[in-house]
Amino acid sequence: MTESEKRKRFESVYLDYFQAIHDFCNSFLKDGELARDVAQDAFFALWNNFDPAYSEKEILSFLYTTGRNKCFDQLRLQKVVESKIKDLKDTIYSDTFFLDEVTRRETYRIVRESINKLPERSRQIALLALQGYSTQEIADELEVSINTVKTLKKNAYSKLREIINNQYVILILLKYFI
Amino acid sequence: MKQKIYERLDLGKQFAKRLTERDAVHDELDQQLEEDPDLKELYHDIAANLHTVDWKPTGRQEWLDFQKKYLFRRQRRRNLILRYAAVACVLVSAVVVWSLYFSRQEEPAVVMSAAGNLPTLSVNDQVFALDSGGIKRLLQQKHVVMQQTDKELVYLTDCGSSVVSEWHTIRVPRQAEFTLVLTDGSRVRLNTGTTLHYPVPFTGDTREVRVEGEAFFEVAPDKDKPFIVHFEDNSVTVLGTEFNISCYKEQPSHTTLVKGSVRLSNSLDAVVLLPGQEGIISSSRENITVREADINVVTAWLNNRFYFKELPLSEIMKALGEWYDVGVLFDNKSTGDMLFSIETKRYEDIDSVLTILESTKKVKFTRKDNMIQVKSNL
To answer: Which CATH architecture has domain B108-297?
Structure first.
C-alpha cells in the first residue's frame, strides 16, 4: 500500500463520514464552526493512525469515540467561562447519550449515503417524503401529478432498501440493555 | 464499550432501512422496539427530526480544506528538503565536523538530583549545581581558579599556562539566569533556559563558544584572538563588542548589536552588523535578514524586565509560558494575532502580568493548574 493509495482510501473515508462526525460533534458543542474544527481534528487523529485494512466499523468506532473525547476537551475549557451547557452536562456526559447519538448519526449517514445514489427525481421525492411531506405536498412542490409521486416514491423507497441491504450485511440484532 | 458501539452502528442501519418502510411491518425490529421503550423513543425521535438534517454529501471543498490544513504542510516541507538536499549535505558535514570538535563534552551522563532549579556546571562527565557546595566539590577536583557569588561565576584570568584546557557547560533552567566571566575577561549574561559551552581557559588563535537560548555578550577586546559565538549552524565573529543573541530552539535567532561590530554568518550568507541592528536567521537554509532593532526591547531581560513591543499575543504568551512554565491555549487563532505592547518586571508571578494584559479589556485569561486559557473579549 503506497502513500498515495493510503491517501485515496482515506479521502473516501473522509467524504463518506465527515458530515456524520460533524453533526455528531455539533450535538455536544452546539456550535457549527467549532464542531467542524473538532471533527477535522478527529479525522486527523484517524489519519495519524490510519491503516487501510481497518474495517468500516473500526473506523467509525474510532471517529465517534475520538470525536466525543475531543468535544469533552472543548467543553472542559468552555466550562469555566460559559455556563450555557451546564444543564446539559449530566446528559451529554452519559454513555447513553453517546450511544444514542451514534445511532442517530449512523441512521442519517446511511440514509444520506443511499439517497444520494438515487436518480435525481427519485432523490428529491424520497427526501421530501422522509422529511414528512405528504404526497399532495410533494406533488405541489415538484409540480407533478399525485400518481407520479406515488409511483416514484414507491420505487425510490424500494431502491433505497435495496441499496441499504446490498451495502451492509445486516447482522442479527442483539438484545440491547440487557 | 467497543461492542456496544458496534451494536449501535448496526442499529443505525436497521433504523435507516426501517425509515424507508413506513407502512410495512418489520418483524424483528418492531418486536425489539416494543420491548424497549427507550429504543422506541429514540427511533421516533430520529424519524421526527429528519427535516433538521443536512442531506448534502460532503463536498470536495471540505476535503480540500482538510488537506490544506493538516496534510499539505508536511508534504511541502518534504519538497523543501528535497530542494535543499545539496545544501543539507554540506550542512551535515559541517555539523559532523562541529560535533567531532565539541564531542568531548556533549550531554554529561551524571545529573545531580539536588540541582533542582539551580543552574548547573558540567565538566567532563560530572555535573555540579551552582551553589556554594557544588563549587567547592568542583574546586577540590579541578585546578581551575574561580570565584562564585550568588548569581555569578568568575574564572580568574591568571590561571597558569600549565593548566590543560577543558570544556565546561553551564545550563540555566527556567526562571533563572546567570552571569559568567570567562577566562579572557569577557562577560556573558545567560537568560532563562540557556546553555553555554566554552573552554577553560581559551587556547589557540580564537576564542570559541557555543550557545543555545539567549545570552548577552560583553566581549573583552583582543585583536589577535577573534571571539566566535556558534549557535545552531551559524556563527558570530567579534573582536571587542557588546551584543545579544537569542537563539532558542525552533525559533528564529536574533543577533542584536549594541556596541562595536560583529560579523554574522551561516552556511549561505554573511553580514556585518552595525550598532542598533539585528540579524535574523529563520533557518540555516535562508539568507540573513538585517533590520533596525529596538535595543531597549532586546536588552530588557538584563534589567529583569519583560518588554514586548507590538507583538502578536501568541508570541508574548509563548515567552511568558516559557518563563513561568505554563501552557497556553487560545480560544481561536485571531486572538493570538492581536498585537500588544507591555513592559513589566519579570519576577512577579504570571498573574500580575496577565492582569496588566486584561486591563486592556481586549482579552480574558482563565487559569487552571498549569494551563492558561486565553479568550478574546471582542
So the answer is: Sandwich (2.60)
